[in-house]
Amino acid sequence: MPSEHVAKQKRESLLCTLVGERRIGEQMEWRPVKANRVRRNLFGPVDHEQLQQDFQHMLRSSLEGAQQKWNFDFLRDMPAEGLLQWEELQSHDVPAFYHSCVVGEARKPLKPLNQGIVKEVKAHHFATVTLTENPKVAKKMSGKKSQAGKKQRQTSFTDYYSAKKQVKTNTQAAAKNLAF
Amino acid sequence: MELLCCEVDPMRRALPDPNLLYDDRVLHNLLTIEERYLPQCSYFKCVQKDIQPFMRRMVATWMLEVCEEQKCEEEVFPLAMNYLDRFLAVVPTRKCHLQLLGAVCMFLASKLKETIPLTAEKLCIYTDNSIKPQELLEWELVVLGKLKWNLAAVTPHDFIEHILRKLPLPKDKLLLIRKHAQTFIALCATDFNFAMYPPSMIATGSVGAAICGLQLDDGESSLSGDSLTELLAKITNTDVDCLKACQEQIESVLVSNLRQVQQQQQQSNPSKMVDELDQASTPTDVRDINL
């Protein structure tokens, strides 16, 4: 098999080959070198609890930042007070690209900023929310919907993604003010 | 009945696109946007308390080895280092989390550039299972947020073809030059001194070092010394002196890396190699080094 010729090539062999080729100006065969253990732990044991704490802290602060920027509460999947007006759309009103989906095993939900209203939910048939151009036409999403009726979802990549995408396509003016 | 078994290269790749490579607008756009993807600051001075330059080199070397063993696309490693540097420029990070960060950056870069990306499980095994796939996935989200989802960073690799096609190079040496330039780019990515350099300069310096190293200047006067540097500098609008300095720096990184490798070899095999080490301690020219 040809792959045997191209034996595992490590940094040292990479350099040796390079220098060798430089001397003779021709391509050489890769020289197999003794197996250096690539699989290794570099900086000692990892404190998993600390890691989890740091993760929660950082994700929380990035969610807070996002919430301020978009006045949208990504944890409860609800608009918050602020400049932008949000309008709820049914998921069949938006292109399939924006539909939420969960691939593989679901992520553990992040603990919300204020403890207590946490609900473990795996459903993902939530309404898609979009920005509208004209605040007068926009239905304001006041407290009409009871929170209990609306399932809380886990944070996922699409939280950030759909919001950004839709601002770009729907409200150019808003996007200019909120340059990221 | 006859059974036919054809070996097919499992990696299907697109052909080089002349519309992208032979159009100077692409090169100009790359030069315009490349600065956006540089780390914000020299973070060892102003951001990091726990992490030191030698630790970056350790994690970078490990990442390069993983990428090589997994036969990743050439761009994956420099791109992953770009993510790592940009993250470290904004987030003070603990030493014991650095390897996780390196794994996350490879995970992201591989997903962006490869048809069959590295899996979280595989990367965790490479950390000797010191991290769990779940942690890798969680930190992926954190890193993405800190990078503002700007993953399509410009890397030195983006410039290689644009530079090569403008040089009067012998066709039969093109593969070799490209490979050497790619090796230099990987070397630069392991060295923090290059982290703040624009990718176009690293690419230009790497191509220069590759051509000089292969001594291709025999017949072609425009490929020798200063005229090559001037030609290269013009292609990527780099300052000639900066480019010269960069190329020299690349050569010296090669030398110090070779010395390191030899020392490691000597440690693992102390009976031989003494002569070679002596020789390597005062190199005048990389081509003189015997391996």
UniProtKB/TrEMBL annotation, chain A:
Q: Does the keyword Cell membrane apply?
A: no
| InterPro entries the UniProt entry points to | CDI_dom (IPR003175), CDI_dom_sf (IPR044898), CDKN1A (IPR029841)
Q: Has keyword Ligase?
A: no
Keywords per UniProt: Protein kinase inhibitor
Out of the domains of life, which is the source? Answer: Eukaryota
Q: Which GO terms describe its cellular component?
A: nucleus
Molecular-function GO terms, alphabetical: cyclin-dependent protein serine/threonine kinase inhibitor activity
- What range(s) does the Cyclin-dependent kinase inhibitor domain occupy? 41-89
Q: Which Pfam families match?
A: CDI
Q: Which Gene3D superfamilies match?
A: p27
Q: What is this protein called?
A: Cyclin-dependent kinase inhibitor 1
Q: Which organism is it from?
A: Platysternon megacephalum (big-headed turtle)
UniProtKB/TrEMBL annotation, chain B:
Q: Which GO terms describe its cellular component?
A: chromatin; cyclin D2-CDK4 complex; cytosol; nuclear membrane; nucleolus; nucleoplasm
Chief location category: cytoplasm
Boundaries of each Cyclin C-terminal domain copy?
154-286
Q: Which PROSITE patterns match?
A: CYCLINS
Residue ranges annotated for the Cyclin-like domain, each copy included: 61-145
**Residues covered by region (Disordered):** 264-291
Q: Which GO terms describe its molecular function?
A: cyclin-dependent protein serine/threonine kinase activator activity; protein kinase binding
Query: InterPro entries from the xrefs?
Result: Cyclin, Cyclin-like_dom, Cyclin-like_sf, Cyclin_C-dom, Cyclin_N, Cyclins_cyclin-box
Please tell me whether the keyword Ribonucleoprotein is annotated for this protein: no
State the Gene3D superfamilies in the record. Cyclin-like
Q: Output the GO biological process annotations, alphabetical, semicolon-separated.
A: adult locomotory behavior; cell division; cellular response to X-ray; G1/S transition of mitotic cell cycle; long-term memory; negative regulation of apoptotic process; positive regulation of cell population proliferation; positive regulation of G1/S transition of mitotic cell cycle
Protein location: Cytoplasm; Endomembrane system; Nucleus
- Keywords in UniProt for this one? Cell cycle, Cell division, Cyclin, Cytoplasm, Membrane, Nucleus, Phosphoprotein, Ubl conjugation
The family classification in the record reads:
Belongs to the cyclin family. Cyclin D subfamily.
Tell me the function of this protein: Regulatory component of the cyclin D2-CDK4 (DC) complex that phosphorylates and inhibits members of the retinoblastoma (RB) protein family including RB1 and regulates the cell-cycle during G(1)/S transition. Phosphorylation of RB1 allows dissociation of the transcription factor E2F from the RB/E2F complex and the subsequent transcription of E2F target genes which are responsible for the progression through the G(1) phase. Hypophosphorylates RB1 in early G(1) phase. Cyclin D-CDK4 complexes are major integrators of various mitogenenic and antimitogenic signals.
Give the protein name, as stated in the record.
G1/S-specific cyclin-D2
